[in-house]
Every structure is written in C-alpha cells, then in structure tokens.
Design goal:
- It contains 13 helices and eleven strands.
- Helix 6 (181-194) crosses helix 8 (224-241).
- Helices cover 45% and strands 13% of the residues.
- Strands 1, 2, 7, 8, 9, 10 and 11 form a seven-stranded mixed beta sheet that branches. The chain has a two-stranded antiparallel sheet with strand order 3-4.
- It has two domains: 32-60 and 72-153 and 277-419, Rossmann fold (3-Layer(aba) Sandwich), CATH 3.40.50.1240; 158-272, 3-Layer(aba) Sandwich (Rossmann fold).
- With 421 residues, it is α+β, with helices and mostly antiparallel strands.
- The chain is globular and about 75 Å long.
Amino acid sequence: MSRLFRALVILSCTWLQAAGARGATPAPPAPVLERVVLVARHGIRSPTHPIAELDAHTHRQWQAWPVAPGELTEHGQRDLALMGTALGLHYRQAGVLPAHGCGTGELAVWSDAADQRTLQTGDIMAHSLTPGCPVMPGSLPPGTHDPVFNDLPMQASPALQHTIMTDLSATLAHDRETRPADVRKAQATAQAVIQPAGCTTGMPCFTQPDRATWHKGAPHLSGGLSQSADVAEDMLLEYAQGMPCAAIGWGYPDMRHVIDTLQPAHNHASRLVRRLPALAFPRGHILAGMIVDLVAGQAVREPNGDMIAATTPVIVFAGHDSTLDMLAAIFGLDWSFADLPDPTGPDTTLGFETWRMPDGQRRVRAVIFHQGMDALRMEQPVTAQPETLPLSACHPRQDGSCALGDFTRTFTKRLDAYQHK
C-alpha cells in the first residue's frame, strides 16, 4: 500500500467519524435526583411485652427471645444492614451519594431516642449506607421523648383528647358494620390457632367486640381485634427471626400461610388507630413539616439545635412502624407488598425524592422499599427496588409525582389547618 493511499484511507476514516459525530442524535437530558428524605422502620425486635405476660394472657407458652422485650436481635441488625447496603448502592447509582470513597455532608441521620432499637437503627443505617465513612447519627439523649416522632403530649388537652376519641369511636362504630372479610377471617384464625374454645371458657376471645380507650396518654383499642393484631405481629416476628416453623403456632399446620392469614387483623387495627387523621396529625406534624421543608431544598433544625444543611442530599429518620403509619395518613399514601403481609414490616423504608426535570421543573416522588418475609428470615441480600406511591393529594401526573410547588402548597396547607384548629 502506497503512502498516498494509506493517507487517503486514514483521512476518509477521519471524515466519516466526524460526519457520524455531526449526524448522531444527542441523548435527551435525563432527570436528576437532587435530594431524598428516607424514613426507616427499625429491624426485627422481640415482643414489647415480657413473654411471661403473653403466656399468661393467651394460656400458651410462647418462644423465648435472645434479647430483652422490644430490643433488636442480632438477626434483625444483620437484616437491617442488608437493607442499608442496598439503599446505599441504589442512591450511589442515582448520584446523590459518592460513587467511591467518602464525601462531606452527603448524609444526615436523626434517630428516635425513645427506644434503643431506633437508636441502633440509625447507627446501622448510617454505616451501611456509607460504609467506612465517618457519619455520626444524631438524636436526643437515650430514653428522651422526641417530638419529631410523636408530638402528642402525655397530658393531652381535654379538647384534643375529646377530638381523637370522638373520631376513633365513630370510626369503630362504622367498622362494626363494614369490617372486611379478611379481617374477620384473621380473628377467627387467631382463635383457632391459640385457644379454639376461648370464647366459651373465659380464655382470650379474639372475636369479641372492640372498644376505644385512652391509656397512658394515647388512644388504644381493646377487644378481639387488638388482641388478634398483637398475636399476628408476634408470630410474624418469630418467623422473620428464623425460629423453627414447627415451634411457631404450637404445631398448627402451614404456619407460613397462617401468618399471612392473621396479618390483616394487625393492618386493620393500625388503619383504625394509627392512620386516624385526628391522631396522625398531632403525632406527626413536626416530622411531616420537616419533610416538606427538606424536599423543597431548605435547611431544617433538629431538636438538639443542630442543622440539616440545605446542601445535604440524603437524610434518614429512624423510627417505628407507627411513624410510617402517621406519615401515610398525613401525605395520603397507601401501599402493600406481595411478599410481606405487613406494609410497615421490619426495615420498611419510606422515601420522598426531589427530582430536577430536563425543563428545569422540580418534582417530588414518594417511594417505598421493603424486604420480603423470606428474605428477612434467611438474611438474604436484597436489591433496593423502589415502588412509586402516587401523591394523590397534590394533583400528580401519570407517574405519581407532584410538582414541587404543588407538593409544598398542599401539605403546608394541611399542616397549617391542623395547627389552627
């Protein structure tokens, strides 16, 4: 090949590449995730009441737990770390956490100080979201009541107590006529598994009528539904903890299916009480207000006086299942999972994301993350796959997201209306 021919070939390739570059259609700009606020439920814990009390109440001997009542188990801590790791990978890929190494100020964590399990949850989430990085979770002193997670005062005013109990009593009266069939089946199943003759022998009767009471500064249900809800949650936790199936339910067959059947009682009781707006707003208005401000790109002050900067892209609040329920009520959200019968089960994490669209508009998307029952039981690594929750209160578009201005106006108005009642 002559030098001249070789030069012509090289020159023609250069021209072709240049022409191809000129003719190529540039990729359209993509939406950019700017900030996410996560609210995480703690991991697998033991029942909050001593097992001896549960034994005495049900006339059954329940499984012993390796930790004190209401504490995270080591199994639960490992599962929670798996969730944090999956969330960290997801949000690194989304660009709001550093792809490699440690940055400065990318993550802020605030934990409910009321319980050791939530303090541990904040610590585990911080270090699994950004492994090896020096993140210091914030909280009030251990054992302190934190109004961020529950601003309902222990000595609620007579007017507030009257409002909550009036609404709860009316809701309960309506429920007596309209209770879903799967909830009634759950109560009947609790009776069959625990004490089949309980309603006639003076032992627990899981189908007895319910009533609303005010106890220790908060509303509660007492009766068959609340008892069914309690045992449903305890059996789910036993399964998630990895206890032998033969030991769950005292030999009752197919306990994995039974747990699914029982859980509607727990979910329904939560909807009646925890998601009651008259209760959810007094409990959750501070946290909800912080979320609205944070997704709008503002800085917020934590109860200890520290600030979450306007430039912090990832914020985590470590709370309880009741925290998720109250936020669901305030923001008008609802969700369920095919592989986890409790929508607020261990490690479930609610997110509020702020996106900048190619046209410059900012939009807010609500998402939910979870681990399936068998993933919890087997300590299986998970991939964080967010499910979008439509923000129906603020005129969402087809993908469920709201314009940031609509989001802030809608929920600021809701919160202001509560404040001025």
